[in-house]
Amino acid sequence: MKGTILTIAEHRQNSLREVTFELLALAHELGKAQGLESVCLLLEGEEQSLEGELKGWCERVLVLKAKGLEVFNQEIWQAVILKVMGDRRPFMVLFSHTPWGMDLAPSLSVSSGYPLATDCVSVVIRDGTPLATRQIYGGKLFAEVSLRPSGTYLISLRPGSMRVENPFGLVTQIESLMGIEIPQKTKKVFKEFVDTGAGEIDISQAPFLISIGRGIGEREKLEEIKELAERMGALISCSRPIVDKNWLPKYHQVGTSGKTVKPKVYMALGISGAFQHVAGIKGSPTVIAVNKDKKAPIFRVAQYGVVEDLFKIVGALKETLGG
Amino acid sequence: MDVVVCLRRVPFTQEVDLEIDKGQRQILAENLAFVLNDWDNYALEEAISLKERTKGTVTAITVGTEEDEEVLRRALAMGADTAIRIDSEGLTLDPRNIARLLARVIRGLRFHLILTGAQSDDLNEGCVGAMLAEELGLPHASVVNKIELGEDVLEIKVELEGGIEEISTIKLPCLLTIQTGINEPRYVSVMGIRKAAKKELKVVTIEELSLDKEALVPDVYVERLFYPPETGGAEILEGDPHIVAEKILRILRERGVIS
Ligand SMILES: Cc1cc2nc3c(=O)[nH]c(=O)nc-3n(C[C@H](O)[C@H](O)[C@H](O)COP(=O)(O)OP(=O)(O)OC[C@H]3O[C@@H](n4cnc5c(N)ncnc54)[C@H](O)[C@@H]3O)c2cc1C
Ligand SMILES: Nc1ncnc2c1ncn2[C@@H]1O[C@H](COP(=O)(O)O)[C@@H](O)[C@H]1O
Predict the structure, then answer these.
(1) In this structure, which ligand is nearest to the CA of B71?
(2) I need a surface site. Which of A25, A223, A229, B145 has the fewest CB within 10 A?
(3) Which CATH class is domain B2-216?
(4) Which residue of A142, A194, A256 is in closest CB contact with B165?
(5) Residue B49 — φ and ψ, nearest 5°?
(6) Considering only alpha carbons, which residue of chain A is nearest residue B164?
(7) A237: alpha, beta or left, given left = phi > 0 and alpha = psi -120 to 50?
(8) Residue A148: which of B174, B219, B225 has the nearest Cβ?
């Protein structure tokens, strides 16, 4: 039998998450090179039919439809995937490194005994085993890792690592999974989703954002930046630590757990450029980064960089404007 | 409520040029400063404040070297009752083996709740928590940013992407991985840490856990470290701050965001 790469589809509020297609892009790339079949596992509620969206993206979709599968639950997902892995013995299983993927993949690795590399940005197969690349120390170094020899390898992929454009034009077979028991009682029980994103201002529509990070150092310094933003007609956005410290409300936050923005210019002051942050600024054509650390990863996504104390630049901008 | 909190000491790598050592599998750590992993600081604060609200206990635990005891002293200064270090004995441990060692010790403790950070700031693996939960057969939730106490259950908020959060209940005992911003970690003074140096800190060896060092085969093995490729880096604006300011203003005008 042909070996397979099994991708775990992630969906929320009745739509597939973008990262699912990234996983399928990786599965397709590896599958083509190695002669492996790309198979997507979709667990969905009785009323759902997300499998249509997967047509052309993989060679086979395994669909399990049942009550209780509308919303991700690690205990249920884990039980089902263990069963499917046992039956089909895939060469590799791909997960997303999202809050749900972080909940699922590691415990599945322990319960199945298959090795897992998390938060990978690329994967190749060499001599029949996977080699994955991970970014460490906030993106300052890359690490190439291998996995303990195993029949099945588990990989979780960092969202934003693969480009996704159009389906690959594959002929997709839809196969319904039968006879899989779904745990009825779980220790964790979902209640509801809440949206905490809205607020007084909407940074996602702003043409010009001045964005601050932990590098501003103290809360008091915020005033200096606010003054500058006001004079330039920019809105203020920020990275997560600023919200964590309650220096600005949540609706200012840019990134995976904040807002996605697409200003004409994004000026990042004292932001290191963690992937969860830069995922939110992919749509901005011009990023200007000011950071004291010339090795800060933000300089890899910015068009313009300034290696300097941000307050010197803020001061000089004000003086020049006041000029 | 009795809470166990897992702590990791991580190098502080901003504004330093990281150097890869000759073997290519590690960084040269001699000249680096070390701190408590940011996520763990929030987990620790959460543990202490739960203890204060419920009159319970907090046990802080780390797998590491004698130097890593620094984070345990900090925990003791913050209000932890007990501190345990599992001696890593010079081994490079992957998440699976860290989880294995933690599970061995925690199994013998009295607890209702285990807290870890959502991820560590150095290697970003984001998996020790959920692995540990599975080792112990506990339910778990990852990236939690709110905990409310109920009768033998907790109501929790899990942070998802795009400002969406998931509210769930979870039965005790359980393990939660904590997201930053869940609370405001209290300040610990150097004096406080110094005083805590007198508190007892237990050290456990791998042998005492009846584990064979040889059996700690890593699931994930670092083949090599390398510097990021220098692709498409930013155009660096040089000059003194006023010259740079002029250049920035020119770009802003060109892009039509200021007049
Ligand atoms: C599940 C999850 C979701 C997340 N979601 C988000 C998100 O939505 N948005 C987000 O931003 N983060 C998010 N994060 C956190 C992310 O991983 C980083 O921790 C965070 O982005 C770091 O913020 P920062 O760049 O401001 O701080 P740091 O990484 O601490 O960087 C500060 C920078 O400032 C520089 N600096 C210091 N002083 C000065 C000075 N005087 N002048 C100039 N530069 C200076 C330093 O060199 C450094 O590069 C998330 C993490 C997780 C686990
Ligand atoms: N050596 C360690 N000792 C104790 N706890 C750890 C250790 N390494 C990781 N952890 C815990 O696991 C969490 C996630 O780490 P990681 O999976 O490495 O990203 C951390 O925030 C800690 O709470």
Answers:
(1) 2
(2) A223
(3) alpha beta
(4) A194
(5) -70, -30
(6) A195
(7) beta
(8) B219
Residue of A nearest to B225 (CA): A143
CB contact under 8 A, A102 and B130: yes
Residue-number span of the structural domain to which A128 is assigned: 4-176
The 10s digit of each residue's pLDDT in B85-122 is 999 998 999 999 999 999 999 999 999 999 999 999 99
Q: Which two tokens stand for residue A289?
A: 């980064």
A130 close to ligand 1 (CB < 6 Angstrom): no
What φ, ψ does residue A11 adopt, rounded to 5°? -140, 155
Residues A153, A42 contacting (CB under 8 angstroms):
no
Report how far Cα A173 is from the mean position of its chain's Cα atoms. Answer: 28
Over chain A (323 residues), the average pLDDT of each successive run of 10 is 88 96 98 96 96 98 95 97 96 98 98 98 95 96 97 97 95 95 94 91 95 97 96 97 96 96 97 96 95 94 97 97 77
Query: What are the residue ranges spanned by the domains of chain B?
Result: 2-216
E strands present in B140-200: 140-149, 153-159, 164-171, 174-178
In chain A, what residues touch B218 (CB-CB under 8 Å)?
148
Residue A196 counted as domain residue:
no
Confirm whether pTM is higher than 0.90. yes
Do A130 and A23 have their domain in common?
yes
pLDDT mean across residues, chain B: 95
Asked if the model's pLDDT at residue B220 lies above 60, the reply is yes
**pLDDT on residue A1:** 42
- Is the predicted ipTM greater than 0.90, yes or no? yes
SS3 B110: coil
Nearest CA among B137, B100, B160, B125 for reference residue B39: B125
Tell me which residues of chain A, numbers 42 to 101, contact chain B at a CB-CB cutoff of 8 Å: 74-75, 97-100
Q: Residue A291 in contact with residue A271, Cβ under 8 Å?
A: yes
Number of domains, chain A: 2
